[in-house]
Amino acid sequence: MLRGTLLALATLAGGCSLVLDFSESAIPKDAGIDAPFSQEECDYKEPNDSAETAAVLVPGDVGPAAICSTGGTDDHDFYRVTVPANTASVTFRITFVNRPTGDLDLRLLDKTGGTVLARSTGFGNFEEITCPGASPVCAALAPDDYVFEVFPALTGSVNRYDIALTITPM
Known about the structure:
Elements: H1 2-12, H2 39-42, E1 55-56, E2 65-67, E3 77-83, E4 87-95, E5 104-109, E6 116-120, E7 126-131, E8 133-134, E9 137-138, E10 144-152, E11 159-169
């Protein structure tokens, strides 16, 4: 009744008619703002939230994965890589779209997670550590297990990322 009365008044006044529809059917169905990544991306190789629970990663594992907010706690993803004998180099790279709330960083740790061996903290759309390498500095890796950690550059950062692991033999 009210809609018809407003329409009639606008028409009598010689103006344009405007009908506003606030019904449930008019609400657009968009992705939730609190869930910018799929559950599959957030759960990639979980649980992998510490060096102890690091997920085994081999060349060919590419993701997609995501650093997701988990109840106010920053998400960190850990991946265990085995470097075989006679390896010339190892490259671990993550690619993502850097945005104000999505800069990610990368660390290479010893197998216990206790010692940082290299760290990549750029501002572009990727982070990469190559061993041996000069930028960031990383020595050749002896045959052993190592852990790569993907983490938010700033507290609260979240983002989707792809993985590339390359182990080059001698």
